[in-house]
Amino acid sequence: MLLAFILYFVSRQPISDVRLTGIPIEFRGLNQGMEVMVDAQQTVNVRLRGPRDIVRGLTPNQIAVIADLSDKEPGERNIQFRPDDVSRPNDIEVLQIDPASITFRIDKKIRRLVEVRPNFSDELPEGFEIYSSSITPSQVEVEGPQSQVKSITSLKTETINLSDKKSDFKSFVDVEALQHSIRVKTPGPISVRIEIGEIRTRRTLRDVPVHWEDAQPGYRLLTQTLNVELYGPTSSLETIEQNQITAVIRTGKLTEKTASVKPEISLPDNVDKHVRIESYAPSEIKLKKH
Q1: Model pTM?
Q2: Domains along the chain?
Q3: pLDDT at residue 13 above 70?
Q4: For residue 181, what pLDDT is reported?
């Protein structure tokens, strides 16, 4: 009796229409190892008709539009929607599906390792620069449609702000948002270590004397001095004097009348680790027999 009463009550209700928007499409029956590619999160709008009290209470999450892919091969594909493709409560009639069809692509699903690069925002305070940066892990594994995954050359991290940084620091970030069909499979976050210091410049120390460590009788140095160009933090370069740079040659036993030897240039032991020898000239020390 109760069921009969409910059916009688529903049948006596006025009939109403309703339009529900943003109904997601559920892709079903896709072959294993394949992916569906759409331009964005694909949704449709559906116009329904039925008893007023039922129709007015409907929400988008009570409705589903099913796209059956069980007979679809890889490539560009199209599906025409029919009323039977709409999953809905009983006594509800489908009047319209908008759009009535969708175009999409079925592609092979693959995974691939992709390089990750730091993404910096703003500038360091005046007088400072980045010396180096390192990322762990330096690569992440991504998964998605073959045509999209193969086109990825590198990924950026979320932005790392530099505006107030004057010394080394470490930041933990995620990979920047990708296309919705690409998924990062490597667990996060990503660790980025940034080395920061005083702006570096160049300084040339002239007439650095050449020392012949195993000098042989009967030979003389034609090249007595050389110029050494250093690169590093300005304040550190200013503390280095010419007599702290050593230029040494070793020849072993000489038999030729003339010879050319590359010197070994050394910095003082206590020098800033960020100072390096950029170049020196001449590049070879010439010797000659008396």
Answers
A1: 0.69
A2: 16-99 (2.170.120.30), 109-198 (2.170.120.40), 200-289 (2.170.120.30)
A3: no
A4: 83
